[in-house]
Write a structure and sequence with these properties.
Keywords: FAD, Flavoprotein, Oxidoreductase. This is Acyl-CoA dehydrogenase. By secondary structure, the chain is of the alpha+beta class. The protein is built from ten helices and eight strands. A hairpin with a 2-residue loop joins strand 2 (88-92) and strand 3. The longest helix is centred in the middle third of the chain and has 30 residues, at 173-202.
Length: 312
């Protein structure tokens, strides 16, 4: 079973990946969407905290490209858009204020695309007027993602720093495509757990119950992988249906939940207690997949599906 990266080496690895071009992924809807998502899934299988930061950077690059803008060379980007618990950034008379939660890479990213009400703002994170609250990130799962609260104190914003018109960020086609990229990372996290469980079983003689759980996890992963691939090809052909992104996210969440439920039934408590890498991987996946809002997202999907005449 693998040893996961700590924060200093994770930061170094992220910059190394960016420097060698490994994070310059094909843009969504450009004919190679599946290649993009498989790259994100591979990072998720390797280390979910690293993949979270990589996904944010690649999503930011895709957003900038969709807006017809160039990223700052050699900068690591994030997308900070959470409005958890009534928090969030606001842009008022050219000044950015407020608290944004779950800002992955809060202490070491160079730039971020920050959602402020219905606008998106590109922010140089080296400027004064930006405060990171290190005490806010008390996580065990995804601990190394450095997803602290960030406070903006009346930060001046130039007109050129505003990306798109009001509402553009969430209404553009790439918003749904980006959400599928996150689902690909969740899938990769499930693949990483499955690989660890399979390695565990190769070192002993499994019983039929352990094999049944392994088979169920493998089936869930393969089915989700197939759905994401089908959706990626539909996006490239401009033929995806309006519900496709929500279905991909729901399928990936269900897959991750299946793996999180069944993996400990195979291994028992021993690797959870004696293998830090495996325990961290399980905890990371448990936290990260909760970006999906469970029954609330499923209810929204069902509400739309009721009137979707193309349901199959």
């Amino acid at each position: 079973m693998t040893e996961l990266l700590d924060t200093p080496s994770l930061t170094t690895e992220l910059r190394h990946l960016a420097g060698e071009g490994a994070l310059d992924l094909p843009l969504p809807a450009g004919g190679r969407t599946w290649e993009r998502w498989r790259a994100l899934a591979a990072l998720g299988a390797r280390d979910l905290a690293l993949a979270r930061l990589a996904e944010g950077h690649t999503d930011a690059l895709a957003i900038l490209a969709e807006a017809g803008r160039e990223p700052v060379p050699d900068a690591l980007y994030g997308v900070w858009a959470a409005k958890s618990g009534g928090t969030g950034a606001k842009l008022d008379r050219g000044r950015l204020s407020g608290t944004v939660r779950f800002c992955s890479g809060a202490h070491f990213l160079d730039r971020a695309l920050v959602a402020a009400d219905d606008l998106l703002v590109e922010v140089d994170l080296t400027r004064e007027g930006i405060e990171r609250d290190a005490s806010s990130w008390q996580a065990i799962g995804m601990a190394e993602s450095d997803s602290a609260d960030v406070l903006f104190h009346e930060l001046p914003v130039a007109p050129d720093d505003v990306i798109g018109s009001p509402g553009w960020y969430v209404s553009r086609p790439g918003f749904a495509h980006g959400s599928c990229g996150v689902a690909a990372v969740w899938l990769g996290g499930a693949e990483g757990v499955l690989a660890d469980v399979a390695a565990y079983l190769r070192s002993r003689e499994p019983d039929e119950h352990q094999l049944a759980h392994l088979g169920a996890m493998h089936t869930a992963i393969r089915a989700t992988d197939a759905l994401l691939e089908q959706t990626a090809h539909a996006i490239d052909a401009h033929a995806e249906d309006p519900l496709s992104a929500a279905v991909c996210r729901a399928a990936a969440e269900n897959c991750a939940t299946t793996v999180l439920d069944r993996a400990p039934k195979v291994t028992g408590p021993t690797p959870l207690c004696r293998d830090r890498g495996f325990a961290q991987r399980m905890s990371d996946l448990l936290v990260y997949v909760r970006q999906h809002h469970a029954e609330r997202d499923l209810a929204a999907l069902g509400r739309e599906a009721r009137y979707d005449g193309a349901m199959r």
